[in-house]
Write a structure and sequence with these properties.
mainly alpha, 8 helices, 71% helix, globular, disordered C terminus
Length: 189
């Protein structure tokens, strides 16, 4: 396991894989956000910008700007009492920010890899009357979506940090399940 003083090796193709995974995990959240805030396209734009990066576009200021715009959409939804929409927009932020995963061995960087999935799971839970089984289902789906490259990148970082409320719990559940599945696969004959 890496420690806080270690620099992680990350290739551009690995960053694109991480972004593609984050986009796949965040897409279900768009329906949640757009149901509550149909005129606000900022989260969709952030996910589309992240997908463009995953598909080969450059990592530009526009991608970062789209992430910040989705963050503002999350804040506005939160202030309006639309907590599911807020988490859905944060999933879009997670997708866009995956392209900016830093090569520093810090537990907080795990959020760049798995944050979109955790926020989507929370948004879906909230839409279902705060049903944790719904979040667990999305975490299981997110685990299945993770290609080996993403699991390999994740394993270079320390485990997900403590805190973060329910989203933090979901993040740690996904982190642990991906690390376990990867360990089990590496021990197969």
């Amino acid at each position: 396991m890496a420690d806080d003083s270690t620099t992680i090796e990350l290739s551009l193709s690995e960053l694109r894989e991480v972004a593609s995974y984050a986009v796949a995990c965040a897409r279900p959240a768009l329906a949640v956000f757009e149901q509550e805030r149909p005129d606000d396209q900022r989260p969709r734009a952030a996910i589309e910008a992240a997908q463009a990066f995953a598909d080969g576009a450059k990592r530009t200021k526009a991608l970062r700007d789209n992430a910040w715009a989705a963050w503002r959409a999350a804040q506005e939804a939160h202030e309006a009492g639309q907590t599911a929409a807020s988490d859905a927009a944060r999933a879009a932020v997670g997708a866009a920010s995956a392209a900016f995963l830093h090569p520093l061995a810090k537990a907080t960087q795990v959020k760049h890899i798995l944050g979109a999935a955790a926020h989507t799971a929370r948004a879906l839970e909230l839409c279902a009357g705060d049903d944790p089984a719904i979040g667990a289902t999305h975490i299981t789906r997110s685990q299945a979506l993770a290609p080996p490259v993403v699991v390999d990148v994740l394993r270079r970082y320390p485990t997900a940090p403590n805190g973060g409320g329910r989203v933090g719990e979901l993040l740690r559940q996904l982190d642990a399940s991906l690390r376990r599945s990867s360990t089990a696969e590496s021990h197969r004959p």
